[in-house]
Amino acid sequence: MTFQFPRVALSIRQPWPHHILFDGKPVENRSWPTRFRGSFLIHASGTFDGKAAERREFIAEHPDSSLGGIIGMATITDCVTSMHSEWFFGPYGFVLVNATPLEFVPCKGKLGFFTPDIDFSLLKVRA
Questions:
Q1: Are 112 and 94 in contact (CB under 8 A)?
Q2: Residue 29: Cβ-neighbour burial (10 angstroms; 0-12, 13-18, 19+)
Q3: Which pLDDT tens digit goes with each residue over 21-60?
């Protein structure tokens, strides 16, 4: 199957990218709204959203989950201020569909949407 890989990425702190890709998390919570709609690469930030003990537990339970690179892609279909989902806590939520895990490609993240400094030919859907 051939994928058209997006050229824009959004950096998200673990464990949230894992939940988007493997647990059906349908929303990415942000403090800022976006008009962007379409596919984007999911960049797992080099930092973890939580305490050190939570990070150790997460890594032990999910040894294949990486930090500091591209790990997936998804599509943003809307930006909302409320949503009937246990995952939504706002104030803004980017509504996500078609989350697809990719093979890890290391790269530095940035704030907001960005074009990753990678060789895009390295992007492959995770088996």
A1: no
A2: middle
A3: 999 999 999 999 999 999 999 999 988 887 777 878 887 7
